Amino acid sequence: MCYERPVATDGLEIAVMVPCLNEAAAIGKVVRDFRAALPTAKVYVYDNNSSDDTVAVAAAAGADVRRERRPGKGNVVRRMFQDIDADIYIMVDGDDTYDASIAPRMVEQLVADNLDMLVGKRVETHEAAYRAGHRLGNRVLTGLVSRLFGSAIEDMLSGYRVFSRRFAKSFPSSSREFEIETELTVHALQMRMAIAEIDTNYKERPPGSTSKLRTFRDGWRILVTIMNLMRNERPLLFFSLIGLVLVAIALALGIPVIVEWLDIGKVPKFPRAILASALVVIAVVCVATGFILDLVAHVRREAKRLAYLQYPAPRDAKRS
To answer: Pick from 82, 108, 80, 106: which is nearest to 94 by CA?
Structure first.
């Protein structure tokens, strides 16, 4: 089903969640814009050990300000999902780069299409809004996740998302920092949730606001996270690939030994033959491990699915 017209969202409790670290220059406007766009929503600002006036500015703008002492965006998002009770959750960065005016439409589409996650696909309105390194890294990492997990999302690392209650309360997060967006996406894909994307304007930060994202450091962390998620969620593929590499090495070492044995009837290079045989054995163990862990992963997905099904779909979540 596709979103075509506005739907009633009266009776839904909407929470706007804003993770923050030293965003005094932008957070006041972010809070005011979302309060204006969604008058019935409650705006939560979670401060992550800011050293500037983020807390005071956010409180003055009308936000419910809370704190998460453990550093890292992943820790903040996990805390927000744990603490906040709502029907619809909107997550947005506190740097005033995302368009608050599209939030009502995002909520309406989530409810109309009965989605569990709607991602705000960034469309740059300023040339300096989206650095070339970040854009390239996003494309590479998004493409990798698409191949491994079958994602149709084009902007996997967007920080502007809307979630259903059943997504938020069934999400077993383990990320600590900027890997959280990757984990959110893979969780939705593995649970076969209904997800979609919507274009949203993306502008540059206001003066005085600086990015905490480091292209290479955080890109590497996201890549490691993808590999860990692949190991945990698709262990058969992960360990089969390792086994395939080991078999390829074993063949490269062992074929010359076999050819030499066929020629002279002897095996003069016993160490190489033993190593090749050992690599084949290890490869078989890797594949067997993959089969066992794939069954474990299947059981884990079933448990998460049961937790997910305990909560109503967005259309049925209206409270009396």
So the answer is: 80
Cβ atoms of 300 and 235 within 8 Å: the answer is: no
Give the pLDDT score at 126: 63
Distance between CA 59 and CA 32 in Å, rounded?
Answer: 11
Task: Give the pLDDT confidence of 277-315 residue by residue, as tens digits.
Answer: 999 999 999 999 999 999 999 998 898 888 888 888 888
pTM, whole model, 2 decimals?
A: 0.83
Rounded CA separation 157/219 (Å): 11
Length of the chain: 320
Residue type at position 237: L
Q: What is the chain's alpha carbon radius of gyration, rounded to the nearest angstrom? A: 24
Please provide the DSSP assignment of 52-86 as one string. SSHHHHHHHTT-EEEE--S-SHHHHHHHHHHH---
Cα–Cα dist 138/156, whole Å: 7
What angle is formed at CA 178 by the lines to CA 176 and CA 184, rounded to 5 degrees? 85
CA distances from 214 to 133, 179, 220, 273 (A): 10, 12, 10, 46
* Cα angle for residues 9, 13, 17 (degrees, 5° grid): 115
Distance between CA atoms of residues 211 and 218, nearest Å: 12
